[in-house]
Hints:
216 residues; alpha/beta; six-stranded parallel sheet; five-stranded antiparallel sheet
Amino acid sequence: MKKQFVAIGCGRFGSSVALKLMELDYEVMVVDKSEETIQNIADKVTYAVQADATDENTIKSLGIRNFDVAIISIGADIQSSILVTLMAKELGVKFVVAKAQNELHGKVLYKIGADRVVFPEREMGIRIAKNLVSDNILDYIELAPDYSIMEVVALPEWLGKTLKEINMRSSYGINVMAIKHGMDINIAVGPDDQIKEGDVLVVIGHNDDLKKIEKE
């Protein structure tokens, strides 16, 4: 059975996550106290509810305990964000993702039970900076402080060679998860796959190792 999501707070971050999940064919309920916000998104999601999620009776009546994942992205109100995250966990939501304004806010969210804390502005900033300084880096996702996934354009010295010949793991300490060639993507990569010009490799590894394949 597919996971069901509830997004509480529909600012830029909350609404973009909700709409992307809908695009990926998941059921999404969005909750926001702004009538205008709910009207703008209502026809694009499974359910849209105008409600104040900081009210315990309201959040219980929404049945959020039935959702697999809650995305808490209440704007600049740190107190409300903490309160709703706490209530979501207490009501039994299996996985709670909460948006943080800063490091201290993030620490508190983790302390009260958030399963994942995101810093959208910081994470986007890191991705943009990476893309700007390295002409062969197309995208970059930080998985943990030391590990990342990166999309990298095949280096000239890799062209015409198989993954076995390049030996990414011993040469660079990284693993290749997928190879994109034009509109095709190969997610079942094998040692005999040959790298061609224009290929984009999706790789995972320690940040120190990933730096080895970044071209200035």
